[in-house]
Amino acid sequence: MKLSHQFYASPQLSDSTSRTLPTPNLAFHSPSTECGVRPHVKSGRIVGGKGSTFGAFPWQVLVRESTWLGLFTKNKCGGVLITSRYVITAAHCQPGFLASLVAVMGEFDISGDLESKRSITKNVKRVIVHRQYDPATFENDLALLELDSPVSFDTHIVPICMPNDVADFTGRMATVTGWGRLKYGGGVPSVLQEVQVPIIENSVCQEMFHTAGHNKKILTSFLCAGYANGQKDSCEGDSGGPLVLQRPDGRYELAGTVSHGIKCAAPYLPGVYMRTTFYKPWLRSITGVK
Ligand code: 4AZ
């Protein structure tokens, strides 16, 4: 996650971003199946480009890689909880030789157990990498992690909502979260970071990459988000994590998952995400998520 304290004038977006909807008044009856709600956020306030607060992104998952039967574990990627059994991550986050993945739900500060509620760690029983994943182009950079047992939802552990099949978020502000690097080649934070980025039309994104001197092809399955002057972006370690927007009813839905980019927050090189609407049939065929 690249953060900046700089202010960006984006007239066509500033109005919609300065407004927030109230968190829906859904009393949190213990194990709930309600998606996209934030019981820990009292009013749906906007806090861009900074450390988040405990429980503010309850669908965020920390994907860790374990080797030598758990003797060595490292933080590898982000992920998104979509059902009690499944987490979306990036295909390029699949475990290395003789390694396995672990999913941590309800995490906030990775430096220690300082939180008011504990995180839940589950072993990943199965990694389902998209069959058409192409590591050369990052096409279909998606994987589903099947947890070895279902996670119990709680106020700090809530699945994200799926967008409508035909949803188009172009021009809207979205929030990306993760424990990835604070700048390209830089260090990592201890608390979950959040940053707001506008969703860019694919043709505009294609043009931006050309302007920056890159021949990269922006596929229809990709979604770009960021600024022409860079400064705010996802970065290494955020991969697989969520890019979300608030619905009119106050709940949050998934627009994309962090995939790749060239450097981080560099001018004319917005972050590239896997477009959730494009992958809904695939996600549903495996997990049953609507
Ligand atoms: C990465 O290396 C990565 N700026 C993820 C996202 C972005 C760049 C790199 C987007 O995982």
UniProtKB/TrEMBL annotation:
Where in or outside the cell is it found? Membrane
Q: What InterPro entries does the entry give? A: Peptidase_S1_PA, Peptidase_S1_PA_chymotrypsin, Peptidase_S1A, Trypsin_dom, TRYPSIN_HIS, TRYPSIN_SER
- Cited PROSITE patterns: TRYPSIN_DOM, TRYPSIN_HIS, TRYPSIN_SER
How does the protein associate with the membrane? Answer: Single-pass type II membrane protein
> Got a GO cellular component term for this one?
membrane
Provide ranges: composition bias, Polar residues: 7-21
Give a yes or no for keyword Hydrolase in this entry. Answer: yes
- Principal localization reads membrane
Entry keyword set: Disulfide bond, Hydrolase, Protease, Serine protease, Signal-anchor, Transmembrane
GO molecular function terms listed in the Swiss-Prot or TrEMBL record: serine-type endopeptidase activity
Q: Where is this region: Disordered?
A: 1-21
Write out the GO biological process terms: proteolysis
Indicate yes or no for the key word Oxidoreductase: no
Record domain Peptidase S1: where: 46-288
Q: What is this protein called?
A: Peptidase S1 domain-containing protein
